[in-house]
Amino acid sequence: MKNIRKSIIALAVLFFASVSAYSCEFDFEIISGKKDVYSKNDEVTAKVTLTQNHRNCSEGLGNVKFDPNGMEIKQATKWVEKSSGVFERKLKLKITSSDKATLNAVRTCSKDGGKGTLTLKVK
Question: What are the structural domains, with CATH classification, of the chain?
Answer without folding.
Answer: 21-121 (2.60.40.10)
